[in-house]
Amino acid sequence: MPTYNNYPKAARSAARRALKFKETQGTSCGTPVGWQRANQIASGESLSLATVKRTFSFLSRAKVYNQGKFTDADGKPICGSIMYAAWGGSSMLPWCKRVIAEAERNNVEDKEERSPRQKDKHMEQEQRTTEVERRSYVASDEHTEVRLADEGRTVEGYAAVFNQPTMIGAVEEVVSPGAFDDRLMDDVVALFNHDMNMPLARSYNGQGTLELKVDEHGLYYKFNLGDQSYAKDLAESIKRGDVRGSSFGFVVREDDYEKKDDGTYRRTIKSLARIADVSPVVSPAYPQTSVKMRDAIAALEAEPEVVEETPVQDEIQPTSAPKRKVAEALLSIHHHKTLSK
Fold it and tell me: How would you classify residue 113: left for phi > 0, otherwise alpha for psi between -120 and 50, otherwise beta?
């Protein structure tokens, strides 16, 4: 099976800068997989075609997070920029594209042999080291309003609704049908307001006290209330209309960004690596924003689009501070603190 190590020197330099930043400054950005890729690229290690494809996929998605510098005005790490450089940065992306195109012309296979145990271990690592995002939905109709059934003992609703736009700062986000394929066997808990101290039900391998299913509307959930005091409080809050919306926690496997005609961006969540939880929530109007999403919006506000085919020698460029502050101000009303898992 062919391997490739003739990637640009600028890509190796970008990976080394990211590794040096991690070593000297310390950072919680990225995953073990991402830092492994940085070490591979920095050392000039040969990459399989499958790895080249994964690198291309990551950089294609992550380029919107890149601000060209590793820290913001307050000295806080910009994870999007750091990990974009860790994977080789702007010069690595067109190189990967050329390698993939040449391999397709020559009918080169990218099959990687992994034992079932290796696949499971890799999948588990990918799922549990990636940031959990949470999205809430305004209760606008019967498909988004949480309800009580069976004389007030059963809670049911839709934790996610397909193709319903959610505005996160300047980005319109939708969940596409198929995003939950093969995810109903996950270990999923039902929580009140995403609070791990208030578990309501649980589903593991499709079994348990929490029922999950996917239909034409989205991700449906249902569970019977227990005798916990907070479960009784939830029932009363739903009856009063104080709790009407639902939310879900998730880890993205694949998403796409596109620029709309009005200059804003649309994010389509195509598939998930994990469903973390489903939750009846008090305030569904303000979705939680992840660090990556905040960096992405700030980058979109502050940075011009980068031409992929133009290698850059130094990715750390100055950005427009006023625009950055405007983006952060837009985001401040959307940010909720993510609770520890």
Answer: beta
Any idea which of 251-255, 269-273, 323-327 has the lowest mean pLDDT? Answer: 323-327
The DSSP call for residue 77 is B
Q: For residue 4, what are the contacts with CB-CB under 8 A and spacing of at least 6?
A: 46, 47, 48, 49, 52, 99
pLDDT in tens, 141-157: 565 678 888 777 899 99
Q: What single letter denotes the amino acid at residue 122? A: H
**How crowded is the C-beta side of 234, counted as CA atoms within 13 Å?**
30
The H or E element containing residue 91 is: helix 89-105
DSSP symbols for 108-177: --------HHHHHHHHHHHHHSSPPEEEEE---STTTS-EEETTTTEEEEEEEEBT--EEETTEEEEEPT
Model pLDDT, residue 209: 95
Mean pLDDT of 156-178: 87
Task: Inform me whether the pLDDT recorded for 338 exceeds 50.
Answer: no
For the chain, give the longest Cα–Cα distance: 67
The SS3 call for residue 65 is helix
